[in-house]
Design goal:
The complex is a heterodimer. By secondary structure, chain A is mainly alpha-helical. Chain A is built from 10 helices and no strands. The longest helix of chain A has 34 residues. Chain B has a 6-stranded mixed β-sheet, with helices on both faces. Chain B is built from 11 helices and 14 strands. Classes of the chains: A mainly alpha, B alpha/beta.
Amino acid sequence: MILTIARKELRSLFGTPSTWLILGMLQFIFALFFLARLDAFIQLQPQLAQLINAPGATSAVAAPLFSSAALIMMMLIPVFTMRLIAEERRNQTMTLLMSSPVSGWEIVLGKFTGLMLFLVPVTLSCVLIVLTLATGTQLDIGLILANALGLMLLCASYAALGMYVSALTSQPAIAAIGALAISFGLMLVDVSTEEHDASWRALAPTHHFQNFNIGLLNSGDVVFFLLFCGFFLVLTTRQLHNNRIYGQ
Amino acid sequence: MSVTAPITLAAHNLVRCFGRNEAIRGVSLQLRQGEVLGLLGQNGAGKSTMLQMLAGTLLPQSGQIEICGFDLTRHPRMAKAKIGFVPETVPVYRDMKVDDFLLFAARLRRMPPARIMDALAETKYRCSLQDSGKKIIGTLSKGYQQRIGIAQAIIHQPEVIILDEPTVSLDPSQIRDIRALIRELGSLYSVILSTHLLDEVESICDRAEILHHGRLVYGSTSAQMQQYDRNQPGFILTLLSPPALPELQSVAGVQQVDQLSATQFRILHARDSNPGAALLELAAKKGWHAEPLVPLRSALEDVFMQITQTGKS
């Protein structure tokens, strides 16, 4: 049942021209960042070569690219999550799901899976761009994999958060702006807290992504992302149930 | 429909409030297999709320709903698999193709995959959608979208079909088609539909209930109903210089004449013979000065007006 809903979500995502436009733009932006970093690296390479333990191509080009991708995805994912529930509610198609023999968590997981099936290839396209470096140099595959995993987990967190905000309203625009505001707020928490005050910073997904970004695979970070997703998915399920109690 | 047909939907004492506003106040109703029940009511009487609760998209504050013996709150999956719901705004994805949408609806209702393609063909045939399978729903007319809305509700062959104002905002020919479809569905499944159109209830329903301020105020057992023989057709005849009553009674086809006032008579006649033309002809010949005939309002309309007017005062 989850797969039925996921497949429908994926099809309707690819059925709209704007998705293709966004995908195209995204590839263009990724490529632009990649080439800019590569250019800078090539210019700096003679000086870097004189350093002991100088950063390699992967950490000089790939890591910043993934870091920028994380920022772009933070801004982009609300555009996709706003459709998930708010738009269905506005078009009154949510009734179809609610009157079917499908439980709330199946609807939520189905929609989440559908969006993730869309976001995973987006992340992989970023990896593919980086892999083109393999033609000219030796790559740090571990660092790339850690970044790819981190980016996927980060995307999943933003998707879960965005879907919850989408479940709170029947206005897709409000859902998008709300999700973006919360993600941005969490990023500000990460940026603005002082070094010694780690407790607040621990709430920010961007903070946990930074470890992946430098190639550090910390199980604590993985658990954080899984908990973050789980928390918002449960809240979304609760919200759908509340709609049955309080009306839509 | 017979009184021994199994009960497919039973609601007991449903209550639903929105804040302090009590939308449904202790409504109970039953629906048998092969029965078409019309839920009548003014705007805001609680019809949609009632149907949403029966379809499981809204939980009642108290009360119980059973679909084919399964409690809707305790066993929602079993109960909902036996419901087909068409809300007021049909829940269709406008960017999907008709076939894809109906297949999605069938899978969502957990139909065995082997039966889905047959069910799709049968449903499209029944709703006259054979030629529209590859079309995008958003490009179709409102009438077709309504048919798709009904098709998604019957593709899994449910026991109970719930329709919320199925003919609203359709043109007359579309209304006729949809009503014919509902009548056909009524012979196979149990259908409950809400409407504020009296003629809709009279033309397609076996039974009517009137919902007023969140309560059922009229049913087929209601005392008010007994006063009228709702099936007897008739009209009001106005004669400015009337003859004696027996003279009117002797006209062929007239079954009963009641004098309503000095010049007005209520004429009841058999369904297959209308004495209107003969009466007018006789009136012209004998110089009774007849005025145009006014058909009698149906019993249902009388009851509906009476109940809603009382509510206002």
